[in-house]
Amino acid sequence: MNIVLIVTMSEEAQYIIDKLGLKECNKLPTKYPHRLFEKKTENYQLTLIENGRYAGAPDVSLIGTVAASVATHLVIQNLNPDLVINAGTAGGRKAMGEKIGDVLVASQVYFHDHRVSLPGYCEKFPGGFIAKSRSQKIAEKLKLPFVIMSSGNSFDMNDEDKKLIEAYQSRAKEMELAAIAWMCEVHEIEWMGIKAITDIIDDELKPSAEQFFANLKLACENLATIVEAALMTFDG
Ligand code: ADE
What we know:
Elements: E1 2-7, H1 10-20, E2 23-25, E3 35-40, E4 45-50, H2 65-79, E5 83-92, E6 103-111, H3 121-124, E7 127-130, H4 133-141, E8 146-151, H5 159-167, E9 172-174, H6 177-186, E10 190-200, H7 209-232
Parallel strand pairs: 1-4, 1-5, 5-10, 6-8, 8-9
Antiparallel strand pairs: 2-3, 3-4, 5-9, 6-7, 6-10
This protein binds adenine (ADE).
């Protein structure tokens, strides 16, 4: 089985690279900024792609749905995976029981910032991609919540985003999965989303940058542990 793991931020990726003992390998033939890491076991070939970093200073990761679509298209075209897993972080909702560091598996994913009130477009544009049964089986095996998630291109949310997050019953607000799921569906490739919670979006108290990065550390440690456990399910 050929598995591709898409991880947006290098900070998130490093925990997984270390946990799984991945080795850096040759880049794809493209100017799109990215790094690839790999590992082969008896049962699967795994390639991790870090989504990339913006050119110049400040040196930060490429985030959001646009970069995620491009990275997904590139890895699918070049590596021909059987399964694409997007592992990353998300904002959770205390009203739904989420806490910092919790890890969730996606049952479905919407875009919570795609709004076009025209016939046809209003149905297609928000996405709502449904995960295959393997995601649910892995969630059950690892005793993880199997939940609806949603993606948008802002870290904060306006009132319309809030309404849609509520309407979709999204329990994890993040910035890439819907784009990755869409690209996978275009290519008829199975996708899976695994997200760890770094902040609580329905809390009035917003974390400071310092608190957010402390939360990110805990979330990434838990995420790496779960990604390792999820991959073990392919070892039979
Ligand atoms: N990633 C982690 N927390 C997030 C949030 N609140 N919104 C979007 N992406 C996130």
